[in-house]
Each structure stands twice: as structure tokens, then as C-alpha cells.
Protein: YbaK/aminoacyl-tRNA synthetase-associated domain-containing protein
Amino acid sequence: IIKTEKSFFALIVSGERGRVDFKSVAHILGYKQVRLATKKEVKEITGFHPGSIPLVGHNLPCIFDSRLLLHGFVYGGSGHPTCTLKINPKDLERLNNIIAKMD
Structure:
């Protein structure tokens, strides 16, 4: 979860990407700065602790990594701290409010 000057967004990114370039994300969103949300902000905004935020159903606008579409399935948060969600990336894209994509 990232925070801009005005709002929060979810980043749905491939682990293949490595570190996220926050300057690039800020440019994609049209903001001057973005940063990771604090643990407290994540809990307040999503209702989940960092590390257990579900890939779907969080109601945040999302930035989607197009690299995920190269895979038949991706794995990520389910909303439960000990469970993982396996999902087709096309479904992940369809079920979220994707406002921007990373190539």
C-alpha cells in the first residue's frame, strides 16, 4: 500500500520486478511523491495487517504490474495471515479497480 499527498493506492507487482521505483510510480499516478504506507495507515485503510492484505476485495485503486500477465497463476495475500490466494492474473486484473499499469 502506498500513500500520495492525497490518497492511498494498492500496488500489485511481480516479485520479478525487484525494488519498486517510487519516482516512477509517482509519475504514473501524476503525484510528486509516493511512499509506503505505515503499518498503522495500512491497518486503518484496509482493516488488515501488512502482509495479509488480500489481492482482491480491499476497495483501493490499484496500480497493476503487466508482468503478472505472463504467468498462468500468481500468489498473494488472502486476508488471512497463514493462507495464500492463488489466482489467474487476468481475474486479478478484472476484480480490482485498476487505474494504472506498470510495464
